[in-house]
Amino acid sequence: MSKVAVSKNESSLKTGLRKVFSNLDNFFLTPRTAETLAILRIATGAMLCYIHCIWIFDLTSFFGANALLSLDVLDALHAKTYKWTYLASMDSLAVAFIHEILAAIAGVLLAFGFATRWTSIAAWFLTLMTVHRLTPFLFGLDQITLMLALYLCIGRSGSCWSIDAWIGALRRRAIKPSDGSAAVPVHGVILPVRSAKFSQWMGWDDDGRACWSNTLATRLVQLHLCVIYFFGGLGKLRGGMWWDGTAMWFSAASYEYQSLDLTWIGYYPILGAILTHVTLFWEVTYFALVWPKQTRPLVLAMAGMVHAGIAIFLGMITFGWMMIVANLAFIEPERLRRCVSSRIKKPH
Amino acid sequence: MAISSRPNQDADHAEGPGRRCPRKIVPVVLVLVGFHLLAVLAEPLHFFSRSEVQTSPEFAALRRTLAPYVEWLYLDHGYFFFAPNPGPSHLVAAKLAANSGTSTTQTGTAEASENELSIGEIAYLFPDRTRQWPRLLYHRYFMLSEFYNNVFAPSELLEEDRQDPEFVARWTRDRQFYSSLQNSIANSISHRLSESNPELGQPQRPSIDLIRLERPLPSVEQILKQGIRLNDSRALEVLPEAPGLSHQAPGLSNGLTMSAPASIPSVASGVSTENKILRVPSGEAIQPQRLTLPPRPSGKL
């Protein structure tokens, strides 16, 4: 091959790589505002709080010397794995109680968006520690909630619809241009936002501008969801009931799952089969059809219906709800902002 | 995938200029993103590429390499929701063992109080939506009962299985784990029972036997034509601990009869744990048993 041909090939390869790099950069890192993440933050924080409240509610069954899953069993279960948690090294009920209380508080603070930069990490980490202690009790809810909590640590979800944003706005109003410090009296209380450094550390300097980390966090949620649905769909493709159309009936007829009676669907076998196949088709094709704008609304509407059905009929209100919330990651921040502000402005 | 590659053309990017990622760290961020997404994919790929012959070597290697990251971040999921098929549910019943040192009150008699427990009686059941509430708590117990059933390893092996040393070693390991889980759950329930029924705790905590129960999925015919209710406890089947063994009948009472399974289900069919291919022979006849349902919840239980 001549030198010219080689250099031509090299340059076209370089151009191609540069294009791929540029596309990836744009896809993952083009700045966006935080409305979508803020919605995810509120729901995830509230759910994390609820999850930890439930652990506390029956604390002695899950932690302590008389726990259903003793530390010996946990050690054997996690042998040769990297599922480390400090809760596995002690069976003190007091420590577990304090841990769970702190986790629930972190969830509340995350939902309200107070010091979000730190509370998101705290809520995720404390929940992760619990998850590694209580592995056999977990299900899809924990997977999806922890996944959202992880990605919320990346974005600036506290930069809108949060206490952080509110404090930031107050601070900006009261700021002294000379030294960048501010004292903000709110209902007679001076908020500790004097130091610009402290405000920055707490994330109160965020003016709500679009940021690349918001896009990165949102993209990771979106792609993770695609993986979940794709493999969820592939798993179903292996089962005969999802092909012969009886899966909907057998899901409805599982007493341990049932929360509302759906067995009437047995009177309409065609309806049951159609619902089975539509669910399967939607799940398998989600990863492809959720991206084009033409099909996205349909795919998201379908997600809403499927998960609402799971929440209402199959007794997994928490899981169904969190899956619906996770799907909101595909709604543009701009649209969410318009939607929320129009609701706030609407006269009652 | 129709992904807009140009900024501000997709509605997602309608916000215009903002804080951009510093140019110098963009490649680092993209490499980290790639690594993370690979980790997200590692477990499902590993899970799906498993057969009775082998696990696909490249996905096994990928999963092994990323194990610290995948496992600690709790990314090790196969995402098998209601897959491959909706299956039967499993419950766990705790029966007061004969060496509990408790009273031998006959339940169902006029003298027996509602919450009095007697030897051989089912003292606790999970999941049970009347006892475990709110729904999320119920679901936690439900997951434990499914886990308990998934890790089941029979108490004995058939003669032909004993010839395979590798199989026996695996069975020994699995049986040890199953037994320790069984003890852990039994101890916890025993503690509860002695707390809520102080007379049971004298002179020592009651001894508990755990029974695995299965509720098979009913057909349309059974529910809509025969009028059988989904929660009919007659549908519950007692799963045996070993081939050819049946549970000791827990005493006749006015409890409902539970039919025994026609065949012992193969463990391999429902277990997702790697290498869990313990075979339980099918076709062993189990004698029908009668179980007394646990009393309605009162107080702490």
Explained architecture:
The complex is a heterodimer of chains A (348) and B (301). Chain A is globular, with a radius of gyration of 24 Å. Helix content of chain A is 66%, strand content 2%. Chain A is built from 16 helices and two strands. A two-stranded antiparallel sheet of chain A has the order 1-2. Chain A has three domains: 35-159, no CATH class; 163-207, no CATH class; 212-340, no CATH class. Chain A is an all-alpha fold. In chain A, 47% of the residues are buried. Chain A has helices at residues 3-29, 35-57, 59-62, 71-77, 93-112, 116-133, 140-152, 163-174, 196-202, 212-237, 240-244, 247-252, 269-289, 296-313, 317-327, 333-345, and strands at residues 184-186, 189-191. The mean pLDDT of chain A is 92. With 301 residues, chain B is an alpha+beta fold. The longest helix of chain B has 32 residues, at 165-196. Chain B has two domains: 19-72; 89-290, no CATH class. Chain B has eight helices and six strands. The model of chain B is unreliable at 1-16, 103-114 and 247-301 (pLDDT under 50). The chains are: A mainly alpha (348), B alpha+beta (301).
Layout of helices and strands, plus pairs?
The complex is a heterodimer of chains A (348) and B (301).
Chain A: H1 3-29, H2 35-57, H3 59-62, H4 71-77, H5 93-112, H6 116-133, H7 140-152, H8 163-174, E1 184-186, E2 189-191, H9 196-202, H10 212-237, H11 240-244, H12 247-252, H13 269-289, H14 296-313, H15 317-327, H16 333-345
Antiparallel strand pairs in A: 1-2
Helix pairs in contact in A: 2-5, 2-7, 2-15, 5-6, 6-7, 7-10, 7-15, 10-13, 13-14, 14-15
Chain B: H1 26-48, H2 57-65, H3 67-72, E1 89-96, E2 122-126, H4 135-150, H5 159-162, H6 165-196, E3 208-215, H7 220-225, E4 237-239, E5 257-258, H8 267-270, E6 289-290
Antiparallel strand pairs in B: 1-2, 1-3, 3-4, 5-6
